[in-house]
């Protein structure tokens, strides 16, 4: 066979094979597109989880369960079934979440949370001076929407293994409480939290004993937790810190928290 | 009748044929039309071409096409037989052109969907992949074609160098070729930014930052390229316009100049053995025999197009290549292991060389004892005088490109035979190795120290891309909740009770335990143990925590705690990964 004939034969085969590939890919294309949409949603939820972990857990809890006195749960039945009619929102829940996260709230609709409702939810969108891009906010909303089956009780909620802390000591239990009770939302301790709403706690162990005469360090910290308005650090306002920790926490838990603070803030 | 006569008049016939000659008349009518459409070939001639017969008329109507048709006039009438040897050209230049056309076609399709604005660019690329029929295919072809175009341009340059074809009348063609190589690289690089993911954003940030170190105009040049101190809306638009308008136009201009020289002035070079050696007359005659464009070259080119199209589609069909799309660009967080596209690794490698440091290390051991004899204490500190980023980023690469472009005017050796230019051949081969070595040095693995714990976790699950941890099937993770501690759980199957079917269509295929998770955990353990043994991670405590976080999503957290080898301070590093069951679906 001459080269040109070989090329004609091979070329024809290549053209036919190329056409076959395009046809096969074309037949599969609708399924691929559908899969891609699902997959993209999956990855959006993953991405939203990471954004949530970095920005939202301080107030809404490490699993979005909310923190009493600070911020509401994002995974209870009420949120998924009644919240929209309560607030009078005409569109979807996901859009509602996007809207609230984007602009924040000047005044809370539920004054039982932080400081009687002010400050309420901060503004998160870059467009209004917040830290998040719009695609990140959309991802957070997708992530919260994924709680639906837990919230409605369609799936049992798993017990989180959570951060591994040594629960056998008061300090270890106190550290877990510092996160779970929401202290991290407002107070800075180096290596744990970076919030600036309340006074920073680094060095607290050193100064607590001498802040109020007649109170030891333990007594001062204990009192500041159960009755925040008793002594206000200069430069901060009263009535910002929730007043109900004595009701939420047991006496033993408060003592664990004190032990942790004394240990960690030396 | 007047109607038909009018048509005939328009076709330049004055009257209808007599009865009995209608058949010839209609044939001639069609024949004339065909000759006009094909710019010179009638039916008989087309038939002869198809059958491989010689031309049917004189002068050769196949040459007439080349003078009449615009498209055909761009092409040469013929090449000498020896110039068409496959082993002489490897068709590399042809394929670069082929890829350029592929890029143009797929690029126009992509332009219909792409939005060059930071808030929307990434989303529009996602939409191309998820919402456009054959959108992913278009993007994959575009990316594959771009990388192939860069690769084939380099190969074309090497071929021309080693066959000595840049010499003599082809000096200027070589120069335009080097310019085209630079244009190709820049086209590829400007396209790199457009998906607006972490990979592209940081590769381009690193790339453009080189200009910043330039004297006087450096910061301004950087500003002009980026459109702002950091790459943002302005920078993206500038890169987009360069990618879709400025550089394609420049490429067309220089391809035209480059090809005009080949087709009209000096043709493809003959192999040096044909051109320079004394050959028997009959061989010489055969080697210089004309191979006509029509039909021989053209049929061969059509074959090459079929081949190229098929190979590209096959590569994509079997998913040997896939254009990456990482997470959305984030100016606030630089991913670990940022790297340039592979064809710029050599530049990154060059940047890691510090000439001042090398000179210091070289000269100080000699200078110091010497000056010490005279009682002078002196340490040469060149790093204050020589800014390595400026020299290696802005001086060396352009000098190299200029030397390359003006090579024909530097290399005065008239011979093209490799035996008569041994120095040039050795020089060329050494440069291939130098470029490969520089490219290796450009990899993030080379010369950049990452803390041990970070490195181990990063290798399991890179910040961008997949990695073994993210490739653990969800079927394993959803039943593998628990805390796996290094030193306690090493070497055992982490989920002895588990059995699952990775593929629902194949019920016989059952996986026992969780081999993927176990393998990742074992790798995690082994690497950390090595770091502990060589003293980088004393008092090591490490674990991988797997927990259900949401319906269809687990959280995997590798944690490492250790004492700082120097201060003894307690240190910890952990990273959380959320893995959704739908993250890998279908063909992905």
Describe the structure.
The complex is a heterodimer of chains A (266) and B (588). By secondary structure, chain A is mainly alpha-helical. Chain A is 53% helix and 2% strand. Chain A folds into two domains: 55-151, Orthogonal Bundle (Cytochrome Bc1 Complex, Chain D, domain 2); 170-264, Orthogonal Bundle (Cytochrome Bc1 Complex, Chain D, domain 2), CATH 1.10.760. In chain A, 30% of the residues are buried. The mean pLDDT of chain A is 84. Chain B is α+β, with helices and mostly antiparallel strands and 588 residues long. The model of chain B has no long low-confidence stretch (mean pLDDT 89). The interface between A and B is large, with 52 and 52 residues.
The strand line-up of the biggest sheet of chain A is 1-2
Residue-averaged pLDDT of chain B, rounded?
A: 89
Which pair of chains forms the biggest interface, and how many residues does each contribute?
Answer: A-B, 52 and 52 residues
Find the structural class of chain A using helix and strand composition: mainly alpha
Characterize the quaternary organization of these chains: heterodimer
CATH topology of the largest domain in chain B: Cytochrome Bc1 Complex, Chain C
Number of strands of chain A: 2
